[in-house]
């Protein structure tokens, strides 16, 4: 031990290991003397070996290695912290409804990603606390008084993100996505929205290295039976349908054919089971009407239409789309009563009073279609068929 002559750390300690000189400097002589005593005890009392490269006892080399490993090893990322970081990145570019869908989907999964216990808050409080805490604007704020206990449970009793690889935990996750809080199955759209939100979050976890793979890609939704029963008292019966067709036939004047077009529109909805957009796009050539037996209609015009198109049947060309392509048509069955031939259509040459133009062939086809369908439910007396 000697002095270096420098103001900072003026005391120097030197020792030799296998012919290699090692040293260190200290601010006071007491510190240098203490370090010399530690090295002497490691060599003489404990009989430790010294590492030639560093000149330190093996106990200190092992402790230094453990400290480096502990510093490199980060704690596992937990579910709530992952969701909060994920939402911060998605919040700025997502639309309002997209944000709502993401929050709802992750809130449903949270019920499976928190520990259960006797002191755990109810599921509804946990969902509300998660939905409040995941919003980036609420970061660093104190939760509302009624959500304080639930928020503390969500943030302190949540599972590590890696627990999603556990089959039992992920089974509970799928249950929370598929069912509501009261135990009834969630609607199809609700399930799809939640699954999309969960899948996007898990794909982000895989991209950032938090998960080795997306466990959702290996699963499919289990089909469950529905307990819903249709109340026959709220369905439209044949008499009500005939009354509706009679009522709409009186809309507008006779020469403008507006009532007759509406009758044809509502008739194919009721008797052939078409969607409104399919009924608007239906042509007489799409209907296969045998002399006897059941016919069908090729509903290929399933596209969103404006109210004016529904009202006036202007005969716009069919928009391109997957359902309008050949081979993707939906053939609804026609009423069994569509056996006889339809009567001749209205005479041509009818002119629109407002525009002074000839009605298109689409309107005449709609009237012919009505004459056919009006007889399905005994529609005698309907004005458009007289």
Question: What is the topology?
Answer:
Elements lengths: L1 E2 L7 E7 L2 E7 L2 H16 L13 H15 L6 H13 L4 H15 L12 H11 L14 H9 L10 H12 L9 H20 L30 H11 L9 H14 L4 H5 L6 E2 L7 E2 L9 H6 L48 H14 L12
Antiparallel strand pairs: 1-2, 2-3, 4-5
Distance between the termini: 123 Å
Helix content, binned percent: 40-55%
Write down the secondary-structure element order: EEEHHHHHHHHHHHEEHH
Whole-number tally of structural domains: 3
Class inferred from helices and paired strands: mainly alpha
Mean pLDDT, to the nearest integer, reads: 75
- Let me know the largest β-sheet: 3 strands, antiparallel
As laid out across the biggest beta sheet, the strand order is 1-2-3
The number of helical runs is: 13
Strand composition percent: 5-15%
Description:
The chain is mainly alpha-helical and 386 residues long. The protein has three domains: 71 residues, no CATH class; 140 residues, no CATH class; 150 residues, no CATH class. Helix content is 42%, strand content 5%. The protein has 13 helices and five strands. The strands form two sheets. Strands 1-2-3 form a three-stranded antiparallel sheet, covered by helices on one side. α5 packs across α6. The longest helix is centred in the middle third of the chain and has 20 residues. The protein is rod-shaped and about 120 Å long. The C terminus is likely disordered. This is Tyr recombinase domain-containing protein. InterPro entries: DNA_brk_join_enz.
